[in-house]
Design goal:
Number of strands: 12
Shape: globular
Number of domains: 2
Oligomer: single chain
Largest sheet: 9 strands, mixed
Radius of gyration: 20 Å
Helix content: 25-40%
Keywords: Methyltransferase, S-adenosyl-L-methionine, Transferase
Number of helices: 10
CATH superfamily of the largest domain: Vaccinia Virus protein VP39
Protein name: Protein-glutamate O-methyltransferase CheR
Organism: Sphingomonas hankyongi
Structural class: alpha/beta
Distance between the termini: 50 Å
């Protein structure tokens, strides 16, 4: 009952706008398929687009201290990194990642950094591509020095400078579909997305995420999410809590089976 109430609350504006009296009437219209575009509007209304720059900053610190230095060594020959932010909402996570590289120019000089942000919401992707945020949005997670350095004031708020936007790109994508082409991402972030999926859809999502990762890549989930009991393809990196690796990639992986713990790899 409480879930239905939350759905009705999220869709209330859309129902009024479309002149639809009840949730049951909306479901009937969707099933009949008489109003093209309505299903996308429903998806947009139901999505939780809460995000901000360097959200829960600790995970970004883990990337900076552990994953990125190791990748800098492993990818020294190709000097190329590919990162995927799944469920990126309006793009703050993607631009936060871009700042990690932009603020270490000597370390990443000569590298090709490709950061892809995807989301099922057309509205969110349009906003992310524009890279324009309100004063309130830039203040959430960014200090004054970062704001002035990486954003320039414009008529609609603050827009990311060219150096920040250069390595990023965005596209519409459903996490439950095959991963964006090509795969082989060195880092995949899927934070606070799986919480909203049913168990069977969550299992499928982990299949998709695992298939998108490079053999020695990392997956980062949200603070309240885990791979434990959800998939056999991924395990916790014991050297970097909060990051997950493909099982059998040769790194030190911790897997939990029931109440037992085992470590695989060398």
């Amino acid at each position: 009952m409480s879930r239905r109430w939350r759905i009705e609350t999220a869709l209330s504006s859309l129902l009024r706008e479309r002149g639809i009296a009840t949730l049951d009437e909306l479901i009937t219209i969707l099933v009949m398929g008489k109003e093209p575009g309505l299903s996308q509007q429903v998806v947009e209304a139901l999505l939780n687009n809460e995000t901000y720059f360097f959200r829960d900053r600790a995970p970004f610190d883990v990337l900076s201290r552990h994953a990125l230095p190791e990748l800098a060594q492993r990818r020294q020959k190709t000097k190329r990194l590919r990162i995927w932010s799944a469920g990126c909402s309006t793009g703050q996570e993607v631009y936060s990642l871009a700042m990690l590289f932009a603020e270490a120019p000597e370390q990443w000089h000569g590298w090709t950094i490709d950061i892809l942000g995807t989301d099922v919401s057309t509205h969110c992707i349009d906003r992310a591509r524009a890279g324009i945020y309100s004063q309130f949005e830039v203040q959430r997670g960014l200090g004054i020095n970062q704001t002035i350095r990486w954003f320039e004031e414009c008529a609609d708020g603050w827009r990311g400078v060219e150096d920040l936007r250069r390595p990023v790109r965005f596209q519409i994508h459903n996490l439950l579909e095959p991963p964006p082409h090509p795969g082989g991402f060195d880092i995949v972030l899927c934070r606070n997305v799986l919480l909203y999926l049913s168990p069977d859809k969550k299992t499928l999502a982990f299949e998709r995420l695992a298939s998108a990762m490079a053999e020695d890549g990392w997956l980062m989930l949200g603070a309240g999410e885990t791979v434990i009991g959800q998939t056999s393809k991924l395990g916790t990196d014991i050297n970097a809590r909060g990051l997950y690796r493909l099982v059998g990639d040769g790194s030190r992986i911790e897997k939990r089976v029931g109440d037992r713990r085992s470590t695989s790899g060398a």
